[in-house]
Design brief:
Length: 146
């Protein structure tokens, strides 16, 4: 289920957050609610990159490395796309795989992660595949004037 209105708003606030133009608090307060599963997945992943307690931008000591920034831009491209989010629900999907210790293994978290990782091509998350990513790049919303 794609919610284009919420995705567009989410993409805009995420783009401004990743660019260091808004704080983590502004990002949290502006990110829209939606039943579109991509919205939760991307918001939950971006949560890994900021502090819940101190207001800050992703600049200075909070700046993300350039390779991580490239990943984030792909997540934003997904929000601007018309691609379905076809991954199973799992916490922090964009930072997978995660190493689990004994406690995580006791609760079968490694199996859930295995099922997630084998559902698509993780190299292109949140796109499910290289083809899905290529379609979105072929028709980029920001450059198409829409």
């Amino acid at each position: 289920m794609i919610d284009p209105v919420a995705r567009k708003k989410a993409a805009e606030v995420a783009r401004r957050f990743v660019a260091g133009q808004v704080t983590n608090f502004e990002f949290e307060n502006s990110f829209p609610s939606s039943k579109d599963p991509a919205m939760w997945a991307i918001e939950d992943t971006l949560w890994c990159f900021y502090d819940d307690f101190d207001e800050h931008c992703l600049t200075g000591e909070w700046a993300v490395p350039e390779d991580t920034r490239s990943l984030m831009l792909r997540w934003i491209l997904f929000l601007y796309s018309n691609e379905e989010y076809d991954w199973p629900k799992i916490s922090h999907p964009g930072v997978r795989p995660i190493e689990y210790g004994l406690f995580g293994k006791l609760f079968n978290r490694h199996k859930k992660q295995h099922d997630f990782l084998t559902s698509g091509d993780i190299e292109f998350w949140p796109f499910i595949s290289r083809d899905s990513f290529a379609r979105a790049k072929q028709y980029p919303t920001l450059l198409a004037g829409s």
